[in-house]
Amino acid sequence: MKAVTSRFLSWAILGAVVLLTGCERPPMLSEQHGYRGTGMVQVKNPRTVEEQAANNTPPFALPAAPTDGPRASQAYKNVQVLGGLSTAQLTRLMVSMTSWVAPNEGCVYCHNPVNFAEDSKYTKVVARRMIQMTQHINSDWSQHVSTTGVTCYTCHRGNNIPQQVWFKKDSSPMGADFMGDRAGQNEPAASVGLSSLPNDPFTPFLLGSQDIRVNGTTALPHDNRHSIKQAEWTYGLMTHMSESLGVNCTYCHNTRSFASWEGSPPQRATAWYGIRMVRDVNLQYIDSLLGTFPSHRLGETGDVAKVYCATCHQGVNKPLNGAKMAESYPELKTTTASPDVKVSKR
User: Fold this and answer.
1) How many Cβ atoms are within 10 Å of 325's Cβ, its own excluded?
2) Which of 37, 198, 212, 320 is most deeply packed, by most CB within 10 A?
C-alpha cells in the first residue's frame, strides 16, 4: 500500500512540475492604466524586463562634428545621399554606422577598399537606400516615431542584418486531400507566439493593405470576408504586436469593446500609424531592392527580408526604451543630399 501511495505521489509531483513549466514564476507586476473595472492591466515579469534592458541600451554617441568646411559632395566622389554634410559630419556618421551595422567587418563591409567611391558591393547600394528610409521615417512618420526617431542601430543592434525580420511564406495550398488549404495554420512560429494561427499574417497587412478587422460590418453578405478564418489572420498580427512590444492587448484596446475606437488608449492611434509606416517602408524602400540582393540573402519564395514591429521594438513598448538617438544624428532626420547630385532610387 505504501509503495502504491509513494508511486502515486511521485507521478503527481512529476505531473505538477510538467504543468508548471508553462507558467511564469512569481512575483509578477501589474499596473492598471485604463478605466477602472475594465481589466485594462499591464502584467510584466521583472526578470524579463531586466533581460530586455541589456538589449535595449543605446550605444554611446560620438561628439558632434563641425558643420563648416567643404561639403562631402565636393571632397569625395559619388556621395549621393549625404552630400550636403561637411566632411567631418560625414566621417562621424560613417564611423557610427560601421559600429551599428558592421562592427566586425568595418568599412569594407560596404566599400571596396581600393575605391570607396564605386558601388560594386550590393551592401553599399542597400545602405544608401536605408539611409534614405531612415530620413523618411524621421521626417514623415512623426505620428509613430514622434520626436524620438530612429537610427540604423534601432533595427541592427550591431548585426549586419537585423535579428528580427520576416520573409513571405509559401502561400500554395498545403495538402491535396480533405485537409485542403491550411492557410499556414498549425505550423507554430515564433512570429505569432508559437500559436496555431497563420504564421505569415504580415504579407496581407504589412505588405498588402487588407482590412485588419474581426467583426463583420453587415449580416452575412456573400462577399463578407470578415469571417472567422479572416479573423485568425488579424489575431496572428495582433499576437505578433503584443509579443514584439512586450505588452498585453489592453495596451492599445479597451476591454469594453476591442473594436471600438471610443475609449481606446492613445497607443492604439500610434499603432495604427505604425502599421502604415511599416507597410510604406516595406514597399518603397525594402521590397524595391529585390534586384540588388544576392540569392543567398533571399527567402524561400525569393523575396527580401522585410521589417515588422519586432524589428525596432525587440520586446519593449518603445524601441531602446525611448532613447532619443536621432537627436544626436540630425543628418538622419532630414534629407542631406547635395542639390547638384541626383539621388539614386536603386
Assistant:
1) 21
2) 198
- Are both 246 and 287 inside the same structural domain? yes
Q: Which one, of 183, 186, 161, lies nearest residue 172 by Cα?
A: 183
Task: Give the Cα separation of 193 and 311 in Å (integer).
Answer: 15
Arithmetic mean of pLDDT, 195-201: 85
Which pLDDT does position 28 carry in this prediction?
73
Q: What is the mean pLDDT of the chain?
A: 85
What one-character-per-residue DSSP string does 92-109 give? HHHHHHHHHH-TTTGGGG
Phi-psi region of 58 (alpha: psi -120 to 50; beta: other; left: phi over 0): beta
Averaged pLDDT, 228-238: 85
Backbone torsions φ then ψ of 91, nearest 5 degrees: -60, -45
pLDDT of residue 70: 93
Q: Which residues contact 250 (CB under 8 A, 6 or more apart)?
A: 33, 34, 38, 39, 40, 41, 42
Structural domain that includes position 188: 164-313
Q: Is the pLDDT of residue 343 over 50?
A: no
pTM: 0.85
Residue 113's CB: how many other CB atoms inside 10 A?
8
- pLDDT of amino acid 109: 96
Measure the CA–CA gap between 157 and 323, rounded to whole angstroms: 13
Cis preceding linkage at 103, omega within 30: no
Q: 290 lies in a domain?
A: yes
Domain count, the chain: 2
Please give the pLDDT value at position 21. 59
Cell of 54: 541589456
In a domain, 85, yes or no: yes
